[in-house]
User: Fold DUF2627 domain-containing protein from Halobacillus dabanensis.
Amino acid sequence: MRLIALLVLVTPGIIAVYGIKLIRDTLFGEFHDVFFHIAIQGLLGVVFVIGGLAFIGGFILHRDKKRNLTKGRFKQNKEPK
Assistant:
């Protein structure tokens, strides 16, 4: 079970690292032939970084909420207003 959790966290991490590489290559003007334009390469790099970090953050938040480690910060009120 821990191996599956590790793989679930490593895959978006690798995608985020590749996004950082795409952003760096865009800033230094190194164009990859897969993309049609250098701006698309940079934009996709930003999407990869934000998406990877959001997935990892959401995974950690979900795990902490399940183990009651958030100190009630994210509890939802069930009372009707």
Remarks:
- The first helix runs from residue 2 to 27.
- The chain has a mean pLDDT of 89.
- The radius of gyration is 18 Å.
